[in-house]
């Protein structure tokens, strides 16, 4: 007796239209997710940058407690070392500090700069941290944070020009501000910060790809017919004005800025850290870089 034919079960695959719809949905989800992931990563990097500033502010306070003054940006005839070399013992870097040489010129201490210090590098900053454009500095690491020597411009309260040391200026390097905190052979103390430590910038962030004057983090200055400031920078130009590389500036007036969207970090002398918007009024910005101008607008 003949058996009826078994029913054949047929499995249907995805049609082309269904496949395209699924791909489109996945694309939309990825498009929504990626900005959120990038924003979360940037938030983490920005937090790390802020923490770096806090560590430097703490090291600065500890240095002041020990030496009863702020560290000078350099000292003639002492290896021309910068601010951050002097802060090494207060950044848990005693081994590096013991290798510092105070004889000769800056080249003597370049071997120290072969060691990158994460505390001096913003995670959102340039991927290539090594200095490759300056003589004798190949494979050295730079810093993304700089001491505040003062503002360049006009005091909005007194309408007077902020003070400068014109004897140390040159056309190629730029002005030399003196109304800030870090100076050559400095003996300034917290008592000199008349405007208040919460109103005065101590250290600012300069960490973007197109900046042309990165130098080894060990260096303090270069002197040739004028002083080039290497571990501190004047506050003259708006934040992020040079970020796209289309703005001409000099060593001393390296415009502060960063790859954090919309501004950069500023470490105040009271140890606090503030994200400063690139849209800040320049009168208020320069006021925050002055230690004794009488203007207390703050950031």
UniProtKB/TrEMBL annotation:
<dbReference type="InterPro" id="IPR045584">
    <property type="entry name" value="Pilin-like"/>
</dbReference>
<dbReference type="InterPro" id="IPR011453">
    <property type="entry name" value="DUF1559"/>
</dbReference>
<dbReference type="InterPro" id="IPR027558">
    <property type="entry name" value="Pre_pil_HX9DG_C"/>
</dbReference>
<dbReference type="InterPro" id="IPR012902">
    <property type="entry name" value="N_methyl_site"/>
</dbReference>
<protein>
    <submittedName>
        <fullName>Type II secretion system protein G</fullName>
    </submittedName>
</protein>
<dbReference type="Pfam" id="PF07596">
    <property type="entry name" value="SBP_bac_10"/>
</dbReference>
<feature type="domain" description="DUF1559">
    <location>
        <begin position="38"/>
        <end position="282"/>
    </location>
</feature>
<dbReference type="Pfam" id="PF07963">
    <property type="entry name" value="N_methyl"/>
</dbReference>
